[in-house]
Each structure stands twice: as C-alpha cells, then as structure tokens.
Design goal:
Elements lengths: L2 H18 L1 H12 L3 H25 L5 H21 L3 H28 L6 H30 L1 H22 L22 H22 L1 H7 L8 H25 L1 H22 L3 H16 L1 H11 L5 H28 L6 H34 L19
C-alpha cells in the first residue's frame, strides 16, 4: 500500500483522538464544570452535530481546491479547536472548542477517503479506505487509553494540549507524504455536485449509516458509567477496558474493509445482524465482568467493521460527486453519534439504568439493518429493470445482491 495512506491515517489518528478521548474523561469534565453526566454528554453530541455540518459545508467549499491543500487547511482548524478546548474556563467555551475542532472532521475523512480510494486499484478500495480509517481505531487502541491516563494524572486539560501537539505532527506528516491530488475539473457551479442527492440510494445509504453506526456509538457514549456502575469495575480500570474496545475497532475495521471488497451486500448484512445481537447480549450480561470484557471487544469489532463498507456504498452510488457523498456519509456517521447519544441520554434520564443505552443501541441497529435490506431489495429491482431496458444491447455486470461494482 502507498505510504500516503499511512499519512492519511496519521491525520485520522489525531482527529479520532479528539473525538473519542472525551469518553474516558467525561466524569472528570462533568465534575470540573459542575454539570450532570447527561449535560457532559452533550460535548459528544455537540461535536457530532458540528461534524455533520462541516462534513457537507466544508467539503462543498473545498470542492475545487487541491485536495492536499484542503486536508492541510482542515488540520489548521482542528489544531485551533483543540487549543480552545484546552484553555476553556467554562463549559460554554469547552463546547465551542469542540465545535470548532469538529468542523474539519467530516471534510477531512470525506476528502481523504476519495484520495485513498484513488491511490489503489478498484479491487482494493475497501482496504485502502480501511487503512485511512485505521487512524481512528489506533486512536482508540492506544491514544484514548493514554489520553485518559494523562487526564487522570495531570488533569483533563493536559490531554487536549497533547492532542494539539499531535495535530501539528499530523499536519507535518500530510505535508511531507501525501502527494498533490487536484480536485477534478467541474464545468458547473460548486453546488452542481448536489445532484447526487436526487438518488434514493444515496439517501438510504445515509440513513443506514446513521442507524447502523449510531446504535453502537450511543451505547459507547455512556460506557464508562456502565462499566463502573453495573459491571463493578473501578474508575482506574476504565482506560484498560477502552484498550480492549479499541482492539476490537482496529480488527473490525481491517476485516470489514477486506470482506467489503469481496461482497459488500452480504458483509454489511452479517455485520449489522451480529452487532444487534451483541448489544442486546451485552445489556443482559453487563453484571458479569468476564462477559463485559468479551462484549466490549465484539461491540468495537462489529461496530467499526461497518465503516469501510458503508463508505464504499455511498461512493458507489454517487460517482458524479464522490467527495461530497463521502463527506455527507461522514456527516451521517456523526449524526448517528449524536442520535445514539441523545437516545441513550434519554434512557438514562428516564431512570432506566446504565444498561439502557445498550438496549437502545440494539434497537437502533436493528432498524438500520431493516433499512439496509429494503435498500438492497430496491437496488435489485433497479438492476432488473435496467437489464430489461438494455436487453440485446449489453449485459449488466452488477448482481442484484452485490454492491461491489460502481453504481451507474
């Protein structure tokens, strides 16, 4: 694989760290600002909503900019946001810092995923995308636990200063290793790419992403409270448990990309089905520490295994605007984050206990699976109709059950 992919992963590592490290620090942040667990959780959902806005807005504005320059510009925004978080003296300023840092997130991964896919042969696109997103998983395996340790030892602000430094290093890595990749020439206006949203398959892809990923993330948002309040682990054990979750993310991401290259439809169907079951079983067995450890790994693995396939699906169905579609799907991931965190927070506020976000996540994922199966059935009908229209002219290489070829 090209070295540029690993440079993109480095940028993803920094961005992934600022997104996820707040999980382990949430109790400390809540205590410092004197807010409830639910209000502290809004720092997560606020970040996610900002990603959703930035993923579409900034990807569109940077559509005609050299992609390398676009990625570097986005990292500048990321660095500024994390500096503000580290300096924040109030909850409101902390939220503002999270929002500023999050604006770059969707556009970085959206543009970066297109760059990654273009660096390799078509049959390896899923693997290339998974390598870029490996930065997110490595952030969870190593960065989040270390960031949590640092925050507990030297105060949570020290973690955000460390993230700021990582952002600078990531900037240098992108500048040195990623080749210049100019955006494609477009004859129309900047807004011309928005025609991709005429496709119902693009909208169904976005909905599946919101639900399929949101279910897992909603459960994960309040996982520190589940681990300490139900499973009986100490606060000091949480970082080590997050390592196990991160191991699952890393393995699931790589395997998900590899299998998505082979058969996208079947891969996502199986992953979403198993994830639904894992979340439900986790809720039932959370009082057992052994079962909790196993469930954490599986939740991370199957939760993040969806990412390369979901990203491929929307790009396959939006060949006229892959960067915008990719950015929109990154926004969808984070809308799912916000939606899942919101539902989990409602369950907690209703007094349903610290396993209620797991139950809510299982239901959300099940709905996502149902939407995906409907989308696949509609796609099959579209292909069958196209074959009838082109009978005698040529054959259609894409099967009804497979979405591994580019949609036309």
């Amino acid at each position: 694989m090209p070295a540029a992919l690993f440079a993109l992963a480095l940028g993803g590592f920094g961005i992934g760290l600022t997104e996820f490290v707040i999980m382990g620090l949430l109790p400390d942040v809540a205590a410092d600002f004197g807010v409830s667990e639910t209000v502290a959780g809004y720092l997560i959902s606020g970040y996610a909503l900002s990603v959703a806005i930035g993923g579409i807005l900034l990807t569109t504005l940077l559509g005609k900019v050299d992609r390398k320059k676009a990625l570097l510009s986005l990292l500048v925004l990321f660095i500024a946001g994390n500096m503000l978080s580290a300096l924040a003296g109030t909850y409101s300023l902390m939220m503002l810092g999270r929002i500023v840092a999050a604006l770059c997130h969707g556009a970085f991964f959206g543009i970066g995923a297109v760059v990654a896919a273009d660096l390799v042969d078509p049959g390896r696109r899923g693997q290339a995308i998974s390598i870029m997103f490996a930065g997110l998983t490595i952030a969870n395996v190593a960065g989040v636990p270390l960031g949590t340790f640092l925050g507990q030892a030297a105060g949570w602000r020290s973690t955000f200063w460390a993230i700021t430094v990582i952002g600078v290093i990531a900037f240098a890595g992108i500048a040195a290793l990623v080749p210049s990749t100019p955006a494609p020439e477009r004859s129309g206006s900047v807004l011309a790419e928005f025609r991709i949203f005429r496709s119902k398959q693009v909208w169904l892809s976005i909905l599946v992403t919101i639900l399929g990923y949101g279910g897992m993330f909603g459960a994960f948002t309040y996982i520190a409270f589940t681990l300490t309040g139900v499973s009986g682990f100490s606060a000091g054990a949480v970082p080590w448990l997050l390592v196990l979750f991160g191991v699952g993310l890393f393995g699931g991401n790589l395997l998900g990309g590899r299998f998505a290259d082979r058969h996208l439809f079947a891969t996502l169907t199986v992953i979403l089905s198993v994830l639904t079951v894992v979340l439900a079983v986790f809720a039932l067995t959370a009082a057992s520490q052994i079962a909790t450890v196993i469930a954490l790994v599986l939740m991370g693995g199957f939760g993040f295994a969806t990412v390369p396939g979901l990203q491929m699906r929307i790009m396959n169905h939006a060949t006229d605007g892959p960067s915008l579609a990719s950015g929109a799907n990154i926004a969808a991931f984070n809308l799912g984050n916000a939606f899942g965190a919101w539902i989990g927070g409602l369950a907690l506020a209703a007094g349903l206990g610290f396993t209620s976000p797991l139950w809510a996540g299982s239901v959300i994922t099940l709905v996502g699976l149902a939407v995906y199966l409907v989308a696949g059935r509609l796609r099959g009908g579209e292909i069958a109709a196209r074959r009838e229209e082109t009978a005698g002219v040529g054959s259609e290489p894409e099967s009804a059950g497979s979405e591994s070829a580019l949609a036309r």
